[in-house]
Structures are given as structure tokens and as C-alpha cells.
Amino acid sequence: SQPNLLQEIAKFMVPMLPHDTEVLGALEMGGIPLATAISIETGIPMCFVRKEAKTYGTCKLAEGADFTGKKVCLIEDVITTGGAVVDATIALREQGAEVDHVLCVIYRGEGKATKLDELKLTYTPLFTATELK
């Protein structure tokens, strides 16, 4: 709802992107505006990753840029348990994407072994929950 704040967050997240990122994977819903702003800043194409495929239209779980065989960096607003990120990672990997990194604005899972670790995902937060207390 605050375009200036979204733009500032995107500018801080751009340097956090892995240098070999070819596609941004925007997780529904919170990751979509962030990935859009980052895409505008960098020119990196993006795809939208739904929580589940629609039963109409293209019926795809992910729409947008072709990600098959490409390095995809997932973009999320907040990660707590990592469940949505894990689901998106598994789905994109099954469709041929190389997913090994996720950026988020706030990471709330500090000090816990997470599902992200099991998938060997590197997660880079702009802030941790502790930093915002």
C-alpha cells in the first residue's frame, strides 16, 4: 500500500540477490509486489508461484517467465516455518528450475532448524524478527 516503501525495500534487496539469478520466483501473495519491484530495478524476469494450481485457465502452479533449467531466486515477504517456500521450491524443481536461494524481508524462524535447511536452501533476510524488536 506504500509504493515508496516498497521501492526502498526492493533497492535494499537487489544487492542480496545471487549474481547468477536468471528468474525471480514471487510467492503468492506477499512475494508478488516485492518481486515486481525487484524485477523493475534489475530487469530480471519473474514468475508467480501459486500455493496451488488453479482449476481453470492454464491450470499452472507457476506463471510468467520460463524458469525451466534456470537459476530461480524465490522472493517472500515473511518466512516463519518456511512451508510455502518449501512447497514452491519442490514444485519448481520438479518442473526443471534450479532453486537454491530465497530472499525475504523478515525472517522469524531464528534459532530453529527449518524445512529450508532440509532442502539445502540458502535464505537471506533483510531483517530478522529479533532485529525488529
Textual characterization of the structure:
The protein is 32% helix and 29% strand. It has 133 residues and is α/β, with parallel strands linked by helices. The protein is globular, with a radius of gyration of 14 Å. The protein has 5 helices and 6 strands, in the order H-E-H-E-E-E-H-E-H-E-H. Helix 3 links the parallel strand 4 and strand 5. The chain has a single domain, classed as Rossmann fold (3-Layer(aba) Sandwich). The longest helix has 12 residues. Helix 1 packs across helix 2. The mean pLDDT is 92.
| Class by SSE composition | alpha/beta
What's the number of helices? 5
- Radius of gyration, rounded? 14 Å
Average pLDDT score: 92
Q: What is the count of β-strands?
A: 6
- Listing every helix as H and every strand as E from the N terminus to the C terminus, the arrangement reads HEHEEEHEHEH
Walk across the major sheet and give the strand order. Answer: 3-2-1-4-5-6
- Percentage of residues in DSSP E strands: 25-35%
What level of helicity do the residues show? 25-40%
Keywords for this structure?
single chain, 133 residues, alpha/beta, Rossmann fold, 6-stranded mixed β-sheet, 6 strands
Quickly describe the structure.
With 133 residues, this protein is an alpha/beta fold. It is built from five helices and six strands, in the order αβαβββαβαβα.
